[in-house]
Amino acid sequence: MAVQHLKTAEFDEAVSKGLVLVDFWATWCGPCRMLAPVIERLADRYDGSVKVCKVDIDEEPSLAERFGVMSIPTVMVFKDGRQVAQTVGVQPEDAFVRMIDAAK
After folding, report:
1. Of 69, 74, 63, whose CA–CA distance to 31 is shortest?
2. What domains lie within the chain, and their CATH numbers?
C-alpha cells in the first residue's frame, strides 16, 4: 500500500480504525527526507495490516499544533483513534517495527 498524505479534514477518519503510523514532516527538512525511504518500506512491509501516512506540517499546521509536534520528523502510532506511541528524529527501521509491534 502506498503512503497516504493526510489533510486535516480527513485525519480523524484515517486514524480511527486499526493501527496507523503517521509521519509529521516538511519538504525543507533534511532528516525528514532521510526518513522518507524508511517510511515507504514500512508501508510495503505492513501493506494491509497497518496504514502508513504522512502529514506535511507546513500544509497542515493545525495538526502539528494539535499533537504538540515541536520537532520533525515526529512519527506517531495510533490504535483505533488513540495515540499509543511517538518518536522524534531519524530512527532505524527496526525502531518503527518495534513501535508498531508493541501497539498490536
Report:
1. 74
2. 4-103 (3.40.30.10)
Q: Which of 6, 21, 22, 32 is catalytic?
A: 32
Q: Is 53 a catalytic residue?
A: no
Active-site residue, selected from the candidate residues 15, 19, 22, 29: 29
Predicted confidence pLDDT, tens digits, the chain (104 residues): 689 999 999 999 999 999 999 999 999 999 999 999 999 999 999 999 999 999 999 999 999 999 999 999 999 999 999 999 999 999 999 999 999 999 98
